[in-house]
Specification:
The protein has 360 residues and is an alpha/beta fold. It folds into two domains: 11-169 and 303-331, Rossmann fold (3-Layer(aba) Sandwich), CATH 3.40.50; 171-301 and 335-359, 3-Layer(aba) Sandwich (Rossmann fold). The chain contains 13 helices and twelve strands. The chain has helices at residues 11-18, 22-29, 37-50, 56-62, 82-95, 111-124, 138-147, 171-184, 200-215, 232-243, 257-269, 303-318, 352-359, and strands spanning 69-76, 99-106, 128-132, 151-154, 166-169, 190-193, 225-226, 251-254, 279-284, 297-300, 327-330, 334-335. A six-stranded parallel β-sheet has the order 2-1-3-4-5-11, sandwiched between helices. Helix 9 links the parallel strand 6 and strand 7 (225-226). It starts with 10 loop residues before the first helix and ends with a helix.
């Protein structure tokens, strides 16, 4: 291919050249049978010509911790969330100038998939693991610790013991900042759509929401706090529930941008204009937050940097170094765009078409 070998090709580039998705390339890397023969052949040819796997075999024989080549496993629940994609991009960027290859695994909250992943890392001599929003890590962490395989956790579920290395963001501060901004515009009835209750970041964001209201002396209305799961459809469903309240909010804080897009949909179907009649703010600042109309005001979670930082920490552990701190939290600044304005003073009475949409 005549590729400049001073620059390491990424798995994303392999996928783009082959015209397939990242998971398909990952399945080929892991030797999975569920790839069409012609597609597998095309991907394997690209992997070979690019030199992506040229050091994989030698890494196992040289020893896991002392070699600069080998395989880094990134384990996530799924890849349908743009936030996860951004973290993976950060991992790739950190690996670009190394001889380490990236292998992606998706558990889909399926115990059989999770057991298969554990079996695979036995076979391929994994050098280290990065967990990205995976479900309960405990059994895997214990297994990796038993085998002496370094690992890092990103955006973790539940509580982590102090000795577990992890990278995240200042979610409490970000949640508080989002609500403080809405309060500064004059909003007092602010709806909130949360994330999975098992995730630490979800708990921190709703805690920031509560703190901002309490500090401002604004009573907390439980009816304005809705559960979520970081999915677009849930943002839509919970926005509908908020709009159906006898006294609906004048602003909605969705605890991630995907749910904010669901809020946009609910408002669009009811002909409720943003930000004239409803303000919306998200969390993450995923790439399309600046593309939608109006541009989404959001809290920037440095997802790319989280992936890059996690990889840097992991490579230090692989080299046998000791981390100065096992817990890293990156700042979450407010990004103001066009989706927020002072509260609308009129009524959000739904029209005929909107009432039909609400029933559906």
């Amino acid at each position: 291919m005549g590729r400049n070998r001073s620059r390491r090709i990424t798995i994303s580039e392999i996928a783009a050249q082959a015209g397939v998705s990242l998971p398909t390339v990952s399945r080929v890397l892991k030797g999975r049978p569920d790839v069409a023969p012609a597609t597998r052949e095309r991907i394997e040819k690209l992997l070979e010509e690019s030199g992506y796997l040229q050091n994989k075999a030698s890494s196992t024989s040289k020893g896991r911790r002392k070699s600069s080549s080998g395989v880094i496993d990134v384990v996530a629940l799924e890849l349908d969330n743009p936030a996860v994609v951004e973290i993976v991009r950060g991992v790739e960027a950190a690996l670009e100038k190394t001889e380490l290859s990236l292998a992606l695994s998706f558990t889909h909250d399926d115990q059989s998939e999770e057991r298969q992943w554990l079996d695979r890392i036995r076979d391929r001599g994994t050098n280290g693991v990065i967990f990205v929003r995976a479900q309960d890590h405990t059994p895997y962490i214990q297994e990796l610790q038993r085998r002496g395989i370094p690992f890092i956790v990103c955006n973790h579920f539940g509580e982590l013991s102090p000795d577990i290395p992890s990278v995240g963001a200042t979610n409490w501060t970000g949640g508080r900042m989002a609500v403080e901004y809405l309060l500064s515009l004059g909003h007092r009835r602010i709806g909130f759509i949360g994330g999975p209750a098992s995730m630490r970041c979800s708990l921190d964001r709703v805690a920031g929401y509560r703190t901002a209201l309490e500090t401002a002396g604004v009573p907390i209305d439980p009816d304005l706090i809705r559960p979520g799961d970081f999915r677009l459809q849930t943002g839509y469903t919970q926005a509908c529930a908020l709009l159906a309240l006898p006294d609906p909010p004048t602003a909605i804080f969705a605890s991630n941008d995907m749910q904010a897009m669901g809020v946009y949909k609910a408002l669009y179907l009811r002909n409720i204009h943003i930000p004239e009649r409803m303000s919306v703010i998200g969390f993450d600042n995923i790439p399309f937050a600046n593309v939608v109309s109006p541009g989404l005001t959001t809290i920037h979670q440095p997802l790319f940097d989280i992936g890059r930082m996690a990889t840097t920490m992991l490579m230090r552990l692989i080299a046998g170094e000791t981390l100065e701190s096992t817990r890293m939290e990156l700042a979450t600044p407010l990004i103001t765009r066009e989706s927020c304005a002072p509260p609308f003073s009129g009524s959000l009475e739904l029209g005929k078409e909107s009432r039909q949409s609400a029933r559906e």
